[in-house]
Amino acid sequence: MKKILSLTTVLAICGSFLYAQNAVDLKVQLDNASGKISPHMWGIFFEDINLGADGGIYAELVKNRSFEFDHPMMGWKRLENVPEGTFLIINDSRRKGNARSLKIHKPTDFKTGLQNEGFRGMGVKKGDGYEFSLLYRQASPGIRIKVELLNEQDQVIGTAALPLSQGANWQTGSVTFTSAETSPKGKLNIWFEGAGDVEVDMLSLFPQDTWKNRPKGLRKDMVQILADMEPDFVRFPGGCIVEGRDLATRFQWKKTVGPIEERELIINRWNTEFSHRLTPDYFQTFGLGFYEYFLLSEDIGAEPVPILNCGMACQFNTGEVVPLDELDEYIQDALDLIEFANGDIHTPWGKLRAEMGHPAPFNLKMLGVGNENWGPQYIERLAIFQKILQEKHPEIQIIASSGTDPNGERFDYLDEKLRDMKVDIIDEHYYRPPAWFLSGADRYDDYDRNGPKIFAGEYASHTTRPQGPGRSTWEAALSEAAFLTGLERNGDVVTMASYAPLFGHVDGWQWSPDLIWVDNLNVYGTPSYHVQKLYSLNKGTDIIPVKLGDQNVVGQDSLYASAVYDADTKELIVKFVNYNEQSVEANFQLDTKKKIKGNATKITLANADLNVVNSLEEPLRIKPQTEQVNYKGKAIKDTFPPYSFTVIKIPVQ
Ligand code: AHR
């Protein structure tokens, strides 16, 4: 059979001769900065999707600790056959946000207990301490608790006893113990010993080794991998979760602050969103609530960027809208949130922040109104928010949605309206194939320099290689690296960018690809993680033009480039993507009167196979390789491997 070469193959072969013989000449106009890089350019998009919060970064190991899931005993198993009436679910509507509790009735000392399965098991580590705690009340003494931590083989690997005191009121009990083994899928037994009646609630197990050792805090490794990105901002709490399937299940920040046991749980919208990825046990307990989101942002040196519901439920679901004359409650939520974040401790919401442990303000500067909302119904509601927020809080910048897609009728309509309204920042989202990212490297080159700023609020390249969607391949990441040169070059217009979604749990995801994958004990960054991290860690302060002839480098010969100068470290930082299957020789001619020191740092992400992924087994298959290079004078000549993203840092005097 005759083999016919496609045009692309022919071009590729010709290209390989070209590259073997001729170097590409690029000019770096170091003395001709075209603008400033925003101080909050590279950030994080956080949403409780894929077990990102409950079952993920929120380190609680007990699932359905307060019996408030739709089915009160979901996640729980009775350990022995016991007489009818031993367990009773009480629903006491006087208990704010947490009506249900479990009553254990034991007229005699028979053996009984409960087992909790955790979120896809409980990840526990040998030698680490764990704190079991609960709320309880027992009118007369009689019942004691014994807890046992089990491994996957049901062997006991940790145990503790907890006597319960007598009292008519709810009280807290807790005990700590050590795990004798590491187990990715442990379980917890709670035995009720003795005879009597006791009511229990908030049955909880946390590792003591949390982020910053905060009791009942966040999973340390998951926060650390975020901190390692040195993000400039954290956008929270999403995502569609802001909108809810209907208005009743929208995200209401006020229900996520204050005592944890009073935070009213709701179903997570990703529980039922995808029929092929149903997750019936996915609820939002709000243990990670708005206070904790603010704290997390502060901890990792990032600006908090909350997104609030604008009076509309998800338009892919019910599309419910609140009548315009009932929007007050939503606007009040925004005003109160600003007070919660920034207000004096003598204001009601500032006082709550102080009581929760943070008298100093959180220094909120930006607020999103709506996520992926569209149509005239959005514009009408946004206009009311905008008017009041601008009157009362001109210091807060408003982020407005441009819908679900980066082009098309809905986008064009919103883009025009939002520019007419002079909103501060427009939030653009793109989940697109690699080809879209590659051809879009010049997307922002012609954007209005005087109009609203752009927040690339959710981006991810969705490859179909090799077996269907969802894989966080090197192909996806490299196409993002190419596109991000365009964001960096236009850093005077695009002032914020974040990949989405952030986390995926290997046993509990609904949406893929994701930036970071976890199981109960491990965490790793995808190639896309390393790409964004390299941008974030090498952000710079000033945009430096890079030219091929007199053009920006936006895909000619499948090459992409951008550069920044960092006034703090006094470095020129060049980013270069070679999207060819051959290596490329490039000359970067530095147009500058400044003195260039030759000793540069070169960081490369590369793989000749675009299908390569990182995984739990091989978490660093794609990882940055750093080397020191000595370039001579003002001509930086180097060879860049096939399918590579390179960052070169050159000291400038
Ligand atoms: O990132 C996953 C989802 O994608 C977000 O919740 C939503 O905003 C977008 O459609």
From TrEMBL:
Keyword Hydrolase assigned: yes
GO MF, one example: alpha-L-arabinofuranosidase activity
Q: Which InterPro entries match?
A: Alpha-L-AF_C, ASD1_cat, CenC_carb-bd, Galactose-bd-like_sf, GH, Glyco_hydro_b, Glycosyl_Hydrolase_51
Pfam families tied to this protein: Alpha-L-AF_C, ASD1_dom, CBM_4_9
Q: Which residues form the Alpha-L-arabinofuranosidase C-terminal domain?
A: 457-644
Enzyme type, top EC level: hydrolase
Q: Is Transmembrane helix among this UniProt entry's keywords?
A: no
An annotated GO BP? L-arabinose metabolic process
Which terms are listed as keywords in the entry?
A: Glycoprotein, Hydrolase, Signal
Catalyzed chemical reaction(s)? Hydrolysis of terminal non-reducing alpha-L-arabinofuranoside residues in alpha-L-arabinosides
Q: What is its EC number?
A: 3.2.1.55
Q: Which residues form the signal peptide?
A: 1-22
Q: Which family does it belong to?
A: Belongs to the glycosyl hydrolase 51 family.
The protein here is known as: non-reducing end alpha-L-arabinofuranosidase
From which organism does this entry originate? Sphingobacterium corticibacterium
Taxonomy, top ranks, is:
Bacteria, Pseudomonadati, Bacteroidota, Sphingobacteriia, Sphingobacteriales
